[in-house]
Amino acid sequence: MNTVLLLIIAIPAVEIFLMIKIGQNIGALSTIGLIFLTAVIGIYFAKLEGLNTLRSGINNLYKNKIPIYEMMSGASIAFAALLLIIPGFITDFLGFLLLIPFTRKKIINLFLKKEGPVTDKKDYIEGEILDRDKKDDL
């Protein structure tokens, strides 16, 4: 079974299970309020972190540096905002992890980590095509 399909099915099921269990402990209205509260707070912090990342990227451009980390950070902040909008506690937790600069840097470095030396196997032969003048043929 495809991993993405499994995640699409499993994540909402686990989220619903957690909402039911938390709702049993603190009440249904409190659970709904908590879900909305985490979404609003998360979006607010995503906006702040996004502006900080944008400011840092512009500073790097002024210094003639390529803002690669800032681009990755901006994408992860946008993904964190999406996770925070989706109702649920696991997605909110993952979204908040992506909003914290320290953990975001660790996660980005984990994905950008290069593997060992890559051996480049070539299954072609390099060559050059030369055009001969008709004078050479005579």
Poorly predicted regions:
none
Q: Which structural class best describes the helix and strand composition?
A: mainly alpha
- Overall mean confidence score, pLDDT: 85
Cα radius of gyration in angstroms: 25 Å
Work out the count of structural domains: 1
How many β-strands, per DSSP?
Answer: 0
**Through-space gap between termini:** 67 Å
Tell me about the biggest sheet?
none
Task: Indicate the percent of residues in helices.
Answer: over 70%
Annotation field: number of helices = 6
Summarize the helix and strand pattern as letters: HHHHHH
Shape verdict? flat
Strand content: under 5%
Structure commentary:
The mean pLDDT is 85. The protein is mainly alpha-helical and 138 residues long. The protein is flat and about 90 Å long. The chain has helices at residues 3-26, 28-62, 68-85, 89-99, 101-112, 134-137. It is built from six helices and no strands.
